[in-house]
Amino acid sequence: MSDARSSIEGQTPIRLSGRNSPVGHAAGFSIWGMLLFGLPFVAVGVWATLTGLEMIPVDASKVNAPMWVITVCGLVFFCAGLMVWGMGWRQASHHRKLRLHALQYPNLPQMADYAWDASGYSPARWQPLAKTLGGAVFMTVFLSIFNWWAFGSDDDSIFLRVIVIVFDLMLIFVWWTALKGMIHAVKFGRTRLEYGKFPYYLGDWFQANIQLPAGLERVDSVRLVFRCVREFYEVRGRGKNRRRTLVHEQLWAEDQEWSRDEIGQWPRFLNATFTIPAAAPGSRMNAQTKQNTIFWELEMELSVPGVDLKQRYLVPVYARQ
Description:
A 5-stranded antiparallel β-sheet has the order 1-7-6-9-10. A 4-stranded antiparallel β-sheet has the order 2-3-5-8, with no helix packed on it. The mean pLDDT is 83. It contains 5 helices and 11 strands. Strand 9 (293-303) and strand 10 form a beta hairpin. By secondary structure, the protein is of the alpha+beta class. The relative contact order is 0.16.
């Protein structure tokens, strides 16, 4: 299939919302580019932090803010630089793992495309929570500067205060999302998709076999979505307003649903069968390629009392060599 955006079995590509983590480990910049991009942030952050802590001499008469505000500004820049460096380190680590897999599995070229576990896939339990909590803490520290500006300084602009209040409400939502993530991780624990074979090929049958949490006793409904997704970065704006946005575009999908009556006694494993369309593109997840990332996933949604269980599992679907 030459054009991943072409219609597959008559389905129109649609964009998926709520996706902010790349699957293909491509950040839109080279590894060295991210290291160089983060360097000024780290340098300015260190200088401002040391200045705020009065470890670097500064004329206090020329500073129009409390020293703690200068320190917080420094920490924000420093952490932003570290996050960019962290992205570069993770991408470099991923590339090293792929090179190692290519040597260990010479007869499985798919192992050089993604660091697969050939037996199955377990979604990370604590890593998404750590990212959400880190983002909430970073946003809290960052907004503390603007809250001081709006409510603690001599600036009595109503417009500024309204804007800051709007961002504070967004911060409350971020912390609520982090709390839900914590409840989700503690309540459900580990789930896993067992692969019946490795890899799956276009035109094959895909037998989904999902190991469910042991403590899950009641489920009101189940929805499984098996889909092919194209991942790319969209550039918008120009000059200072130029920004890159991660996009996940669904190229094809099939879903299955069951009600509580259809489920009956709740099993420890959830089974379903899907047909992989032969006209779809195979997985292409190596970030070193210049083409867009293509991946296949199985999304599970369980409606349960309290916080619902929602997981996504990567599925190794490839074109035959």
